[in-house]
Model the fold of this input.
Amino acid sequence: MAMKESEQRLPNDADPLVQPRIAAQQPGGLRGSATLTVQTRQAQRLVHGRAPRPSEGKPAIVGLVRFATTMRRIWTAASRDDPWADWKLLQTYEALTESREGVRAIHEQVENKLESMAGVEISIAESLEPVQVPLEFHNPYGYMGAYLISDYDQCVRAILTARHVGLMERDPSEKELYRAGRLVRSAFNVPQGWRFYGVTRDDVAANNARAQRALEAMPLPPQDILEGTLRAPVAPDIRNASARGASDKANDAAPEDDADDEDLPAGERQEVYAGGEDDDEQARD
Done:
């Protein structure tokens, strides 16, 4: 006699031919590791950022640590259907992409100089003691920021090499270092204007108090962002409406209440750098 469907069903709807004890086994969570190798002090500064120095009239510089922490909060809010967070993800994605292209273009120009000397093979300078920065981010944008730092680090090495071997004068080399560094800092500054208000697309449609608070602080996102038809290529899944309605209390808790330290590179667990606008200062050794 055929078994009833309820008696045949195994975990994950496995084929009835699979032994129940085998079907009940589940793989554990995935774990991985990533490390950023930093060879220049200029790049290291952009990992750590800089605390403000009011006595010198210098505001903070946002580094990878603060950038990744802010992006985690935005990522979490975007998963809760916050259209402002979704818009900020898109803006940040575009900024990171454009900055990487810009840094690579500068690097390529310098590489061409280094390869232009017929009969002379020039190797790019390498650090005798590079710094290994373990990356343990909980959002993709932390890693994307690290990729930008890595591109910048390679670019700085090429520029300093070209200057050392006499293919670039000091002033032009400083200008290129400044340009490349500014590209990194401008990308890391993009998410800094975002604020959490626990708002959703349904709130905007209803034009309720929560949406009004957000509108007082930030401009209204474009219509395609509000409709959810335009999102960053790298974005979280959005919780469905029923789940949002059942978790209003959770939605009201700011992502800042999460364990931010989990989103920092190992060794940077205590966030000590204040946010601020880029002061366009060229980082020099």
